[in-house]
Give the backbone structure.
Amino acid sequence: MVVAAHPLAAQAGLDMLKKGGNAVDAAVATAFALNAAEPFASGIGGGGFMVIYLAKEKKVTTLNFREKAPAAAGPTLFADKGEAQEQWRTERGTAVGVPGMLAGWNYALQKYGTKSLSQAAARAIEIAENGFPVSRTFSTINKDEYEKLLKNAGETTCYLNGGVPYEPGDTFKNPELAKTLRLIGSQGIQEFYKGEIAKKIVAAVRAKDGMMTLDDLAAYAPEEMPPLEGTYKDFTIDTVQPPASGGLHIIQLLNVVEDWPLREWGHNSVATIHHLSEAMRFIFADREHYIGDPDYVTMPVPQLLSKDYAREMRNKIFSEKTAGHYPYARFDELLEKKENTTQVCAIDPGGNIVALTQSINDFFGTGIIPEGTGFLLNDHMADFSTDPRSPNAPNPGRRPASSMGPLIMFKKGEPFLALGSPGGTRIFPSLVQIIINIIDFGMPLDEAIEAPRFFSDSAAGRPRPISVESRIPEATLKALEALGHKITIKEDYDKYFGGAQGIMILRDKKIIQGGADSRRDGVGVGY
Amino acid sequence: MNRRRAIKVWLSSFAFLAIAAWPQAQSPQAIFEQPALITSAGQSADVQLASVLAKRAELKANLSKLAVGQDLENHKTLMLVLGASLKGLGAAGLDTNKERERIAQLLVEAKKRNIPILCLHLGGDARRGQLTDEMISDYLPFAKLAIVVKSGNKDGLFTKICKEKNIPLVEVEKTTDIVGPLKAAFR
């Protein structure tokens, strides 16, 4: 089974399984196909994280192919840009981190897959060449990012339809991307990191005032790491380590909610939304203070993940009012532990599983396209802090903190759930809501994913409003306001809250459930 | 002419007059003058699109996403692009209240200067939602002409308001189809 944010991409993965590929082959084939079919959300110009479960060895490993800051990047990169800061962080060449996507896919295929890069890219090439009818999601996002595309990609780009946004049903083709993928398939990833494509990337970035060099690209390497682990009731969670903060915060938030009577309070009740929102605000305070690239920054990961800390946090949350102030946690000793966007989950007949989250950050990334290549460059440097003193400040070769958190959950040692989502800072709160919908509220996977979501955070110790999907009843919102919360109402199925994809294995019933999110164009396919 | 036929002719004439009284036409009259000031009501990216389309229509037009009353100086038409985007509002540093204040002030100034308003809705049905609909209801009544992509009028909201206020309404199939009527609307 394969679940992904576009039917063509999910089918690409399933076709790979049917040709004898394993879950890693399928995930990479799907990932390539997403570049062609959902180019605004991920692609070879970006980066990501992967969790892999190897059924024979009963082992979980993770891959970190997050972008890196160029060697010339420094802590004040964005600090002195004044009012134009946002543009420098998201639309100029300074916004582009050294892409890790291809290096990550290639590593995964070579070490854990059975197919070649060329075989994995084949279906993506067909999609890019033949084109497909654009969905309402694609059209809406295309319209939202029109100005950026006009400025950086130009009026003749294939990402616009004759210089104007695509309407639903228009055909989108990307022959330049097809040519690029064909070249990479035949020449290998060195073409991207050291060859002609590398030169085009550097030229495009520097033409927009960026600082990336050929050496930056040549030096890029992904990292394989053991998973970050946590528990929730009878379940074990394996997820990615920082700089992906999503996994860490998922475990943190589940630790906090574990002892709350969620079932008694009820799904999306005032009590549930209030308590979880308060916990989110405390966790964001920790995130703001502690999260960075663990290769350079020491983080109190064991303390943040401890059940003791979760208990302390619960004690700071009141039932009858908001806490009002959300300081980060202070620990006596920092123990060293190494250990936005689209989502793919795949399971093969052998029981191997992959949960993969990948992104180019904002939709359509920077809008910068290396000449003639057809792919978009990321704006993941925007995930660095603009505060030079932050542990997440830009520095040479550092990876910006990420909100991604693909995960695999186990019950009594057997895989139970593969899950992940795009959605920036909303990723971990959304995934926790899906998990408690399944485990505490007994929902099947699809219902758990489709259920209305909410989100809150804090900044500099101050609470931000609770954002809710409009399906949450007005009476609940009024009761939350009475507790002291401010509320922002979003659309009924708002992609602001992510686009989760998941696979759930019900061993006792011998059923595999695929869950896709209608907030994006998600679909699950199996055989 | 027998009685039945006379009634049919009479009813047809009545219907023709009723429709003719509300000028829905694919080719609008040239009632606007150049240069036009293009601005957004709601800060969606459609305002940028309007600027591109105005250029294709060979119109003299200036884009100012955050235009205020004094920006109407040296302009003869106000082109108001209806479409709300929370992302656009955030990027502009505005909330919905501040955006409403800006547009209200702009409309007052346009009236003072006798500057007619042309409303556009370019996003189709994907650019309809509670906030956009409120802006349509609030600002479309001030227009002298409305040009919209047809799918954005599926529920007849534009038709209803334009009929009530006797505003000519031009519907086009696709965004690029707006160029013709837009050009024809200007002297």
Summary: Residues 3-21 of chain B form the longest helix (19 residues). Chain B has one domain: 29-184.
